[in-house]
Amino acid sequence: MTDPVLAAWLVAAAALLGLVVGSFLNVVVWRVPRGQSVVRPRSACPACGHPIRARDNVPVLSWLLLRGRCRDCGEPISPRYLVVELGTAVLFALVAWRFGYAWETPVFLWLAGAAIALALIDVEHHRLPDAIVGPSYVVAAVGLVAIALASGRLDDLARAGAGGAVLLAFYFALLFAYPAGMGWGDVKLAGLLGLHLGWLGWGTLVVGAFAAFVLGGLFAIGLLVAGRAGRKTKVPFGPWMLLGAAVGVAVGEPLWSAYLGTFA
Q1: What pLDDT, on the 0 to 100 scale, is given for residue 15?
Q2: DSSP secondary structure string, the chain?
Q3: CB 196, CB 248: distance < 8 Å
Q4: Core-most of 23, 252, 257, 259, by most CB within 10 Å?
């Protein structure tokens, strides 16, 4: 996308969409781990149970106007709601900037939203719910197949399928070798990430997969040095898989090319 005006409009639209999606993701993060519907009932204050009014459900703005408190009972509203909405807006804007007016933009926007929900749930509950991972597989498969058939990118589709299979098999082997350090949720997530990373290139896949272990390892070492964790402390790995994938999407191909260039 070369036109800066068109690029700015797309990024701005994606950011606004991210605010709305971020508001919904707050519901997802709260309800999905508890086995509740994300559609009904209406959102309500967890302290007093009063349904949230429409004017109090505007992303970011409502939290600021209410000064982070429930209109009815005055109980504090977690700043996480604000952070998730703003974070989703920023991430959506970055995805739009990275892909521009490409057919795969909606597919990666979906992945971005799912990634935020999965990361937060994994940190809090040490779970990567099938209710989020499963539909994300469907969106990726349908979206990428449609793009490949419409634009003739069958090679990209084949690489995406291979990437998903390779990363799924790799994480399954890790689970088999060391069950205490890996969960089935990580294995399922690996296949999903492999589809997206493989679609963009083998370099993206390798860098994205490797970055997860580097970043997760550095974080674990930091916890050990700070005395906030021991050797047997379980650290959820899903967020690092997702962050590593983000690194792969952002800079995977140039990093891989630079790496290969050192041996040329």
Answers
A1: 97
A2: ---HHHHHHHHHHHHHHHHHHHHHHHHHHHHGGGT--SSSS--B-TTT-PBPPGGG-STTHHHHHTTTB-TTT-PBPPTHHHHHHHHHHHHHHHHHHHH-S-TTHHHHHHHHHHHHHHHHHHHHHS---HHHHHHHHHHHHHHHHHHHHHHT-HHHHHHHHHHHHHHHHHHHHHHHH-GGG--HHHHHHHHHHHHHHHHH-HHHHHHHHHHHHHHHHHHHHHHHHTTS--TT-----HHHHHHHHHHHHHHHHHHHHHHHHTT-
A3: no
A4: 252
What the block records as the tokens of 109 is 């926007």
Quote the pLDDT of residue 75. 87
Alpha-carbon gap, residue 77 to 72, rounded angstroms: 12
The per-residue pLDDT for range 142-195, each reduced to its tens digit, is: 999 999 999 999 999 999 999 999 999 999 999 999 887 789 999 999 999 999
Q: Are 49 and 42 in contact (CB under 8 A)?
A: no
**pLDDT, tens digit, for every residue of 203-241?**
999 999 999 999 999 998 898 888 877 777 778 999 999
Who contacts 46 (Cβ-Cβ below 8 Å, separation ≥6)? none
For residue 257, give Cα distances in angstroms to 159, 189, 207.
18, 26, 11
Pick the closest to residue 229 from 217, 213, 239 (CA basis): 217
> pLDDT tens digits for 41-55?
888 887 787 888 888
CA distances from 116 to 16, 23, 179, 238, 262 (A): 16, 12, 25, 11, 35
Cβ distance 44 to 108 under 8 Å?
no
